[in-house]
Each structure stands twice: as C-alpha cells, then as structure tokens.
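This follows on from our talk about sequence and fold. Can you supply me with one protein entry, sequence and fold together? Could you add the entry underneath, on a fresh line?
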Amino acid sequence: YPTWKRTLARRARESQMKRFCRAQAIQRRLEEIEVTFRELEQQGIKLEKLLRDESESPADQQTQWTNQLLYLVQKKNNLMTEESDLMIAVQELKLEEQQCQLDEKLRSYMNKEDTLKTPEDEKAEQEILKQLVEVVNKRNVLIQLQEEKRLSEL
C-alpha cells in the first residue's frame, strides 16, 4: 500500500473528524439558542404583563420595563442572526462532506489505468466530475451569501 495512499486516507479521516466535531459544536449551540429563545420569550411575556397591568406605576418604572423589553428584543434578534449563520454553516458542512466523498470516488476512477477503464467507468467518472462541480458551485454560493451578509451587517 503506497505511502501517498495512506497519507490521503489519513487526511480524509482527519478532515471527516474535524467536520464531525464542528457539526456537534454547531448542534450544541443551536440547542443553547433554542433554550435562550424560550427564556427570553418568558421574560418578555412577564415584562409585557407588567407594562399592561401596572399602568398606574411610576413613569420611571415603566421606562425601565420598556428598556428591558427592548433589550430582550435586541438580544433575540442577535440570536436569530447567529442561528441563521449556524444554519449556513450546517449546509456548508454537508456540502464539504459530499465533496470529500465525490473526491474519493473520482480519485478511485482516475487512479485506474486508461486501458482498463470500461465505457461505464468513463461515464461514471464524468458524472462524478459533474456532481463535484455542482457541489463546489453550491459551496461558492453559500460563501457569497455569508460575505454579503457580513458586508450588510457592517
């Protein structure tokens, strides 16, 4: 088994583990965001009730509650933005995984001697190459979307 094949296999496993760890971290963060959303929702409901029911409260108190409510809305918007970024990252991870699998398949066809390739092999190689280009284009669209989003936030 040639050294370069072992190196490629090891690198593929390492990148797969990195993607897996990133996916787990993203999933944990999405769950944390969901919990925080629920907490913010509960706090918002309490503040709204206070504002409606305590109409004879001092103006300072009502201003404080209103400010707290606005802060909660701002925090929720920030979390929604983060959640959106994480969903894009999930899509990117899926496409990365798909690209690696296609790379591996394509490499197996390309390593085969041209004289040993059947017409089906050549057709399969072309199809895999076509799929690989589609995946790369999809990843490019996601990266452009992230860049546009980042620039709009600035």
In short: The radius of gyration is 25 Å. The chain has one domain: 3-153. The chain is about 90% helix and 0% strand. Helices lie at 3-53, 59-110, 119-153.
